[in-house]
Each structure stands twice: as structure tokens, then as C-alpha cells.
Amino acid sequence: MEATGLVLEGGGMRGLYTAGVLEYFLEQNLYFPYVIGVSAGACMAASYLSRQEGRNKKVNIELVSDPRYLSFRNFIRKRELFGMDFLFDEIPTKIVPFDFETFLSEKQQFVVVTTDCETGEAIYFNKHEHGNDILKILRASSSIPFIAPAVEYNKKYLLDGGIIDPIPVKKSQQDGYIKNVVIMTKPKHFKRRPSKAASVVKYLYKRHPMIASLLQERYKIYNDTLSFIEEEKTKGNVFVLQPSVGIPVGRIERNQKKLTELYELGYNDAKSQFNQLKQFLIRQNQMIKSKEG
């Protein structure tokens, strides 16, 4: 597994699927030397990397009924549906403490994807250089257009990394991890469709025309990424875990029953496919040894 990366898609509350998968990985003591995540995927990865079993479930299911977490009240008060201060300040420092010490001390690489509002380019922040600011970086990566404002960090204004790099397999490969396990939050055969709100996008992001342009092209970026992943699967470079059945959970879902079902689906999918996953990882190790020999 020395050369295998872990790639995590975003998806708002659909990230509970990823949380379930990672919970099973935690129980099996399965870790990867390199983890890269977008938005909700990056958030779920943080608790996985800090070795906190059950934390993602507690934060994202038990607390979701709190209006400070997700509500139209937040939008009226701060123009954000998700309570970003609550999520990235109160919860990790007071309510369900995040284990910063373990997170920072573990040797695994962790990369978080964001989008630069000015250039429209992906900006990748790694734990080694930016670990102490991880909450702010996760907040930036999770700032979904229309429902959360951009985050200022390192003299840049940043938004959801999924706008430009929704499933960052190519970045993982560029960083030296040709083989990857990819956790996706949408079921098989999903394709993103063109946005019907092109004129609204241009108006709301007139200060950041590159973001407006990207949002209009987002469906192409996403679908091209899916095609690339399929090509890499045929080459034996990618192992994909994604919802085996459809559960109607959207980005802003608050129904705890549905969220629990999605979390359990992720856990059970990981469990049922674990032997296949182990075979994939064993093959990578064998290939590495044969090259070294």
C-alpha cells in the first residue's frame, strides 16, 4: 500500500456515505500514506486522520437538527445555510473536540482542495505546511457557491474545491500515487447536467467572473473526471467505492433517518467489498516489489 492514495469526493450531506466507509476503515486499522479530499470528503477525512472513531457520525447526524448547523435562519442572518462558525469553530473546539495533536503527529499526507475565486484555479493545501490552519482550510473547501461565502486565506479568496477538481485523482497521481482508492458519494451511472441558472450565476458572481464561468462548465468538468476514473479502472489503477443503492439524500439534507441510512450504507459497502479492496492493495504491493527486485 506504499504507493496507494485515498481520494474523497465532496457532496455536502452526501458525505455521510464517505463517513461510513472511513468508519469501517478505522475499525480495520486501514490507513493510506496519502489522502486527498474535497469539501465534505475532506471534512470526513480529518476525523479519520485524527483516529476518532464515531466522531463523524456524532457531528454530522446527531447535531444536524441543531439550527446552528443547517437552517434558513442561518441564511437570513449570515447568507449561509450551513452555520460555518458553528461547524468549523464551536464544534471542533468545544462541542465534539477535534484531536489536533493526533492529526498533526500522524505521518500521513493530507491534501485539501479549494478553488481560487480570482483565477478559477485549484489550490491544494497540505497538512505538512498548513496543518495548524486546517479548520479554516476545511471551511474554505466546504464553502459551496450560493449557500456560503468565500473564505479569505493566504491573501486569496477561496471556495469549494469541487468546482474545479471534484474528484482529485489526477492530483494524487501527480503527487506520485498512481494507484488510488476513490470514495464517491453518487451512485453508478450518475452524470451531472448543465445548470439551468446560467444568468443567475453570472449575476451573483459578477465580482468573480472565473467562478461564474466554472459553475457554468461544472457539469463538463465533473463528467470528464468520471470518464478519466473509468479509464483508470480499466488499467487497474483505481478501486472505487460508491453507493450500491440510491438513497435520496441531497447536499442540504437534515433528515437524520436518511443520513443514518446513508452512513450505514457506506459502512456496509466498505465491509462487503473489503476483501476485494485488500486484493487490490495486495496487487499494488506485489507490483512495487517486482519493480524493486
Describe the fold and architecture:
With 293 residues, the chain is of the alpha/beta class. Helix content is 49%, strand content 14%. Strands 1, 2, 3, 4, 5, 6, 7 and 8 form an 8-stranded mixed β-sheet that branches. Strand 3 and strand 4 form a beta hairpin. The longest helix is centred in the C-terminal third of the chain and has 26 residues, at 209-234. The protein is globular and about 50 Å long. It starts with a strand and ends with a helix.
What best-fitting shape do the alpha-carbon axes yield?
globular
Low-confidence stretches: 288-293
Largest sheet, in brief, is: 8 strands, mixed
Helical/strand content category: alpha/beta
Relative helix content:
40-55%
How far apart the termini lie comes to: 17 Å
Strand content: 5-15%
The gyration radius over C-alpha positions equals 18 Å
Total helix count?
13
Q: What's the pLDDT, averaged over the residues?
A: 92
Can you count the beta strands?
8
* Element pattern in H and E: EHEHHHHHEEHHEEHEHHEHH
Question: What labels would you give this structure?
Answer:
293 residues; alpha/beta; eight-stranded mixed sheet
Describe the secondary structure blueprint for this structure.
Blueprint: E1 4-8, H1 15-27, E2 34-38, H2 40-49, H3 55-62, H4 72-78, H5 84-95, H6 100-105, E3 109-116, E4 122-126, H7 127-130, H8 134-141, E5 151-153, E6 156-160, H9 169-174, E7 179-183, H10 198-204, H11 209-234, E8 238-241, H12 256-272, H13 274-292
Parallel strand pairs: 1-2, 1-7, 2-3, 7-8
Antiparallel strand pairs: 3-4, 3-6, 5-6
